[in-house]
Design a protein that fits this description.
Length: 87
């Protein structure tokens, strides 16, 4: 039974991710000040693209740490030996 719940949860997450990727609007991953400063540059489009990439690169370590901590907590959530009721 737990395997079915896992597959169902995985399916729901996959559907949400696909819907988000397909139906999301074009967003700007910059603050207003950064965008205004970059737009006045001579090669503004290239600078904006690089700034967006830099923002995504800086986002990766905190996301990886969150996923790692969450995964460890989920994996070792029941280390005291109590398996619950098995009637």
């Amino acid at each position: 039974m737990p395997a079915i719940k896992f597959v169902k949860a995985l399916f729901i997450v996959a559907v949400v991710c696909i819907c988000t990727a397909v139906f999301c609007a074009d967003v700007q991953a910059q603050c207003a000040m950064c965008r205004a400063a970059v737009q006045n540059a001579s090669n503004g489009a290239e600078l904006i693209r690089r700034l967006n990439l830099g923002i995504l690169v800086l986002l990766a370590p905190p996301a990886a740490m969150f996923c790692g901590i969450f995964g460890a907590v989920y994996r070792y959530r029941n280390t005291d030996g109590n398996e619950g009721d098995k009637n």
